[in-house]
Design goal:
alpha+beta, three-stranded antiparallel sheet
Length: 118
């Protein structure tokens, strides 16, 4: 259900930018069709076949990622499980804890104010 993770590039990103960033946002997106099924829409299908877009946001410390070279692979294994469950129930299992759930405006503010060190 998920794309193959770009592990080498992500680890280089964490290694090079880890001193400038505080958090990594782990975002999983699932699309619900008008028929109430999970779909993987292309651009045109998105315009007329998607009823709801479900977004699961989780924040991780950049330090956690820097200490574990397999962090991205483990994250993608978790995403695969979440999407398999979503396909059955149209809900993400085990919702993120309250402090890990963001609206887009809060996500943007957090990204600007807290993730990028001045």
């Amino acid at each position: 259900k998920v794309l193959t993770p770009r592990i080498t590039g992500a680890n280089i990103f964490v290694e090079e930018l880890g001193d400038h960033l505080k958090k990594i946002f782990d975002i999983t997106i699932a699309y619900e069709s008008m028929d109430g099924e999970m779909i993987r829409p292309d651009t045109l299908e998105f315009l007329d076949k998607v009823r709801n877009v479900h977004i699961h946001l989780k924040q991780n410390s950049i330090n956690e990622a820097a200490l574990d070279p397999g962090w991205l692979y483990e994250s993608f294994k978790g995403k695969e499980k979440m999407l398999l469950e979503f396909e059955k129930t149209l809900m993400f299992p085990d919702p993120a804890e309250h402090y890990n759930i963001y609206s887009w405006s809060v996500f943007y503010e957090t990204l600007i104010q807290y993730c990028i060190r001045p």
